Every structure is written in structure tokens, then in C-alpha cells.
Amino acid sequence: MPKSKSRNLMDVFPEETREAANLLKQAVPNMVRHDIPPNPIHYALWYSYAQGNNAELKQRLDRIVNNFAVFPPEAAIKLYREYIINGELEQARSGQQQVIDVVDTLESEVTRSLDGGKNYEKSLKHGLEVLHEPVMDELPSVLEELLDSTYAMQEQQEKFLYRLQAAQAEVQYLRNQLKKTQMAASLDALTQVFNRFSFNRFLEQALAEQHPNAALIMLDLDHFKAFNDQYGHVLGDRVLQTVAQMLREQTPSHALCARYGGEEFAVILNPCGKLDEARALAEALRAKLQSLRVKVRNTDKTLDNITASFGVALAQPGDTLDSLIHRADEDLYRAKRSGRNSVGAKTDNLTKTRSK
Fold this sequence. Notes:
The chain is built from twelve helices and six strands.
């Protein structure tokens, strides 16, 4: 069932890491110059301003900062809805209208089916009344009327069944589209593991349990900036995709894998009752990653091993998102300091620390 495709947020911001960083370096000074609060809505607007792909948005932003001493919050929200998430709103409105259309069609068909049933009931009632009469001269016409009514009712029921099946197919399509949209919003576009937002949500849910029974593994690819500088971001992206695929394949079904940011990934183990269990998985992932080989397609050259440093932390009662991530990060940087390509030292891993 073909559907029109609206622009989504990934179409609005398609840049690779280096280009995105350059645009951000242009956007932030503009915000500082006009004393604009650094919230996500303003970031998105001035990032788009730096892109330069939307002349109308650029003109409206210029007009606002020239005419107002303070950037009006209501203007920012209006522009954000109109230029940034307009495609998402169109998809939502389209899906809502499709559901309304399905319901309207079903209501119409049910009404027609009920009307047909009432007419059939009248025909049966009339036929029974005639059959009780002592004179049977009208019997042939009564039987013919009943037969016609039966055919009409059968045809109506067949049409209703067809419409019902079509409606069921439409509802299933809408359900699948909603699932795809929800999943797209939860996944990192490049690596197809969960994104940072989803990671935060799942980890907070695990820590909100009365008796938290989760562990966190953080891993950061070693010397990845130098790798990108030497081989380019296209091959760097392939490495990130390969690492993400390895994580999906080598972690247990109850684990959640996410791209934490840049070349850093995270694995949430829930349940996980022992730190040694999480460290054993981290060590297995480290060894598997070291064994992977990446080839340059146009030269068929095999590159040096890809390695990562790992940090592990076990959730404790009273842990917050920040405190657990902070402990895992500390463990990871112990691995970095000890030579990389390792899992951080056990020492002090259970000591609670808080992010500043």
C-alpha cells in the first residue's frame, strides 16, 4: 500500500560528524552574540541557520534578532515547529487521518449491514405471516421474495467482510508504520543500536527498580580520531557499524546496546547480579573486537586491529544515572591509562562517586 513520504528529522540533519561539528561552531557564536539561551530548540534553529539550506528560516531569524532585544520564546517554538519538526507533525497528522478514515469506512459498512439485516428481517416476517394464511396462492411470490432477500443479505455480508478485511490490513499497516517510527526515534541512525536518549531512558528504568540488579559496560575505541584522520570518516563509519553489529551479536538477549556518543558505546546488563559477570562479558567483547579485521574496499588492504578500552560498574541502591555512568567511566579511563585494549581495574569500582 503506497504512502507518501514526508521529510523527517534525519533528512533535515544529514551531516557527518566533522561537518556537524563545523556547523555547531558557527551556531554557538551566533547564539552567544544575540544572548540566546542554550536550549535544544535554539540549538536546532541556529544549527539550521548555519546550514544555510533554508533561506526563509534564515531571514526570519535575522528579522527577529534585529527587531527584539530578547529572542521571544514563543517565536522560537513557532519556528521550531514550522521548520524543524514539520515533517514529523505531517506524519502524525497523516496517520491520524488514516485512522479516522478507517473508522469512518467501518461505521458506514456496519450501518449498511444493519440496514440490510433489518430489511431481511422484514422479508422473513412477511413471509411467515403469509405462510400462516389458509390461502396459499401467494406462496410462489413469497418464496421468490425471500430468495431475493437472502441473496441481497448474502451480498451485503460479503461486501462487509471484504471491507472489514481491508480495514484490518490498513490498521496493521498503520501499526507497523508506528512501530517503525518509534524504532527509528530510538536507534542511532548510523549504527542501528539504541541512541543516547534511549540508553538514558532504559538505564533510568533499571535504576528505578526497588532492588536494582543491573550492570553497565562502557567502551571507547582506542585512537579512533587518529584512525579517522588517516583513513577518513567513511571508513571510520564502517568501523562504528562493525562494532555495533559485533555488540548485537555477542551480547545476551537481555542486554541493551547503545551508541553513547562518537566512538563510545555502552551495554546495559539487566539483570546482572555480580560485577565479575559483567567484567567477563566485557573481556569477551574486548577479545572479539581485537580479532575483527577491517578491509579498505578499493585496495583490499587489511587495516590494523581495532581495539577498545572498557569500563564496568555494578548498580548499587541509591545509584543515579550520573553516578553509575561516572563509575563506569572512571573504570574505562583506568584501562586507557594502563595501556588501552583492556578492561579497567577492579579497584574502587564499587566505591560510590557522584558526578560534579
